[in-house]
Amino acid sequence: MSVLAHVFEQAGLATVGISLVRGQAESAKPPRMLNVDFPLGRPLGKPNDAKFQTSVLMAMFGLLERTDVPILEDFPGSIEDQTGEAPDSCPLPPRHNPDLHAAVDEAQGLRNAYDRNLKATGGRTLVGRIASVDGIVGLIEQLIEIENGSSLAGVGWDPMTTIAVGQDVRAYYEEAGLQLADNTGARQLETWFYHHTATGQLIRRVRDLMKERGEDGTAVTYLAPMTQG
Amino acid sequence: MAADAIIRKNVGGLPSPDLAPTATVLTKPLSECKVAICTTAGLRAAGDIKLWLDSSFTVLPSESRDLQLSHFSPNFDRAGLTADLNTAYPADRLNELVEAGVIGSVATNNLSFMGAQMDATFSAIIQDTGPAAAQILIDDGVDVVIFTPV
């Protein structure tokens, strides 16, 4: 982004950006940057808080008049991520069919919550890299095959497919979770997914098994967040 | 240490190309300027989703909200953007600022790149995709670009 800002300014566009990593902005020296101490993934700070988001934008626009570049100003205050803290209340569905793998049963039980969120967002979903929502359970069943000994190639996945599977399944759960928990802070639903759900724990086990088996390093690295051990 | 602090520590010192900062001076008030968003969240139109690694960009009609996250990295919070697109792509906020008379108008199209580029030289962005993206905005009469990462 910092490099793009240089290119755009040289083309005659006035630019101002948000920095989420101060060290990067210090290194790249883009012309005008507002550094925010907000969670990664939330450059405007607070979801569903128009007043706060607008205050960030106004702080950005305030830098446009300045020509003493490079400018790196800090937005006041900070918001920390809440890794390790699952939402206070984010109930998982009870076991419905004990004959199914716990992850499959759980995923099926979350479908209503996912559908409610889909309705709430007007149909916007982050599921869809590899499969539609109807294919999520099938992806989980392939993850179970890997845990039971199959290789990535054995289930027909290359490294990029594997990463995409991880993101589709995570998106399905996090979107369902938005309907089950209130006011979640950054990484709380991520923590809930990877540590409290059967499928999230399955993904972490599969990642560890892939590493032990010497599977592709990119797939191992990006199947789940590096901070969700 | 919080997860974000660990990641900031890991990536904060990565080398960047040595580019001299230049400043384009606005020749009119902000209230008359056309503003575009250029996000590096890796957003793509629904149905156009893919895992994205290169330095290409995609054009997002400014009225479009049916966008999907194509960023390859799992290492940032996604629930905020899932709950409210404006958390990383403040298109609704810009429309409100037009109505309030703070900015003049919004661009016809916004732009989306994938952040966390694998090519440390950024040569394609500097020589090819960056200038091409800028030209799209210039042709639309854009004056100001705001960058939003994830």
Based on CA inertia axes, which overall geometry of chain B fits? globular
How many individual β-strands of chain A?
3
Return residue spans of chain B where pLDDT drops below 50 for at least 5 consecutive residues.
none
Specify the biggest β-sheet of chain B.
5 strands, mixed
Radius of gyration over C-alpha positions of chain B, nearest whole angstrom: 16 Å
What is the string of helix and strand elements of chain B? HEEEEHHEEHE
Highlighted features:
heterodimer; A: 229 residues; mainly alpha; 2 domains; 10 helices; 3 strands; 9% strand; B: 150 residues; alpha/beta; 5-stranded mixed sheet; two-stranded antiparallel sheet; 4 helices; globular
Protein described:
The complex is a heterodimer of chains A (229) and B (150). Chain A contains 10 helices and 3 strands, in the order αβαβαβααααααα. Chain A has helices spanning 2-10, 22-28, 50-61, 102-109, 111-120, 136-147, 159-178, 188-196, 198-213, 217-222; strands at 14-19, 32-37, 71-78. In chain A, α2 links the parallel β1 and β2 (32-37). With 150 residues, chain B is α/β, with parallel strands linked by helices. Classes of the chains: A mainly alpha (229), B alpha/beta (150).
